[in-house]
Amino acid sequence: MSFSPFDPASNKPKPEPLPLPNSWRSEAVRIVLSCIVGGIFGHWLGYGFLGIGVVLALYLVVYVRRLSKLQAWVYQPKRYELPEPSGIWGDIFYRLQDNQRRNRKKKKRLTAMLAEFRSSTEALPDGAVVLSERGEIMWFNLAAQTLLGLRSPQDISLRIVNLIRYPEFAEYVASDTYDGEIEAPSPLTRDRTLSLQIIPYGNNQRLLIVRDVSEIKRLETARRDFVSNASHELRTPLTVLRGYLDMLEPEAQGKNPLSEWRAPLMEMKNQTVRMESLVNDMLKLARLEAHAHGQTLQDLLDVPSLLRRVIDEVKAMSQGNHTFEARIQPDLCLLGGETEVLSIFTNLVSNAVRYTAPGGVIRVSWERDGEQARFAVADTGIGIAAKDLPRLTERFYRADVGRSRASGGTGLGLSIVKHALESHQAQLQIDSELGVGSTFSCYFPGERVRVLTEAAPVMQK
Ligand code: ADP
Which stretches make up the Histidine kinase domain (predicted)? Predict the structure, then answer.
């Protein structure tokens, strides 16, 4: 079995250290032998110690010369060559030159790699900006110059927030968590939109990725406008159709030529009602999407009274088939948009009724949860399979298609809820178990929560 030590930083095996050569011993032997020969020669001339002294002095001269050569080489390695004497000096000089050769090779390789990295990042269509711990620009590629108008070297070391002057971006940079990405107008022209994403890496450094998303935004707007316009256009003919069908219905009751059309007329009416709710939901969704970024929803909403209204409406829809329990903190209010918040409440509470068999219980709560406010609807209904949970808020996604259609569902309710929550920076959490029931919880952020007076929650039946 063999074992090779690994360097955790590079993940490469560490080179084995070279064994120390025994040239020290041969150098010492050589000095001693030279001293003996010098001593014998000196003794022969009548000055034994002088002979040894002369030998040592010669060694000193040689050592000093080699040291001076070494110094010259260290200062100017390209200009001076090191000699290749035998013994310990030869060994030292050889190792030094060998190390230098290796370092040169390594440097060449790194320089080539760096050049390759630079040319590949220059070819990237996305802008890349390397930021220091303090948000200063350390390096950027060509696309960053085009997208952000950065200049090299003038903008190096400047703080990025001083160049991209957009409050949301400043908040994003200061957040330190860098969740997702943000969109900001281009600092060069207002009609282009950039997506900015910070990726932390290495030693507190950060990489800012910049993408031009103007075209995607344009297509998104075109799609949204198309849905919204198409829904608008469909609304008028549908209203006319439904009006005539309503007028024809009493005619079909009595003894007249239309009476045999009673069933088809009813079916036509049901389908127009269904189409109307679809068109209305599509319009609601298009409006929510259009307002998702622009509009700030900041009205002070009396949520307890809104909730009572919603519960009364849904109770009528349930026709006494379900038991309702409400736990509402009476003075807990919200800064938001009334239409959007009503949409959230109505969709979730009416879904609870539609997906809970008669005799089931529906619990609605509106309470403080730490800094946040939590609106929750729990039912004892059919529940949702775990595999459907992640897709529930997709447009037209239905876990139970039959029941959804039979109860007049459009498949857009939870999509509307999701968008309305997003426009309030709120989160949706769905907990459910098949055959047991579901809980839909909405968490509204602390900045939107207002408690007029602290009062205990009241239980209502
Ligand atoms: P729909 O109009 O079909 O109800 P939604 O978007 O409101 O559309 O809901 C999407 C799907 O989620 C529904 O078709 C249904 O299968 C499931 N769902 C929603 N709420 C509940 C609930 N309270 N209990 C069980 N299933 C639900």
Answer: 229-448
Instruction: Report CA(380)–ligand 1 centroid distance (Å).
Output: 14
Write down the pLDDT at residue 8.
41
Instruction: Write out the E strands in 320-414.
Output: 323-328, 332-336, 361-369, 372-379
Q: Which domains does the chain have, with CATH numbers?
A: 23-120 (no CATH), 124-212 (3.30.450.20), 217-290 (1.10.287.130), 299-460 (3.30.565.10)
Pocket of ligand 1 contains residue 351 by CB under 6 Å: yes
Q: Of the residues 356, 414, 442, which should be mutated to test ligand 1's pocket, given the most ligand atoms within 8 Å of the CB?
A: 414
Nearest to 324 by CA among 358, 361, 290, 368: 361
**Nearest Cα residue to atom 21 of ligand 1:** 351
Contact 213, 220 (CB under 8 A): no
Residue 19's pLDDT band, with cuts at 50, 70 and 90, is: low
Give the pLDDT score at 21. 65
Instruction: Say which residue the tokens 């700030």 belong to.
Output: 296
328 pairs with which residues across the strands?
A: 366, 458
Locate all alpha helices (DSSP H) within 2-82, ordered by sequence. 23-45, 48-75
**How long a stretch of residues is the chain?**
461
Q: How many CB atoms lie within 10 A of CB 358?
A: 10
Higher pLDDT: 94 or 372? It is 372
Minimum-distance ligand 1 atom for the alpha carbon of 393:
6
Whether the pLDDT of residue 428 is over 70: the answer is: yes
Evaluate: CB of 311 within 6 angstroms of ligand 1: no
The verdict on the CB of residue 39 being under 6 Å from ligand 1 is no
CA of 335 to the centre of ligand 1 (A): 27
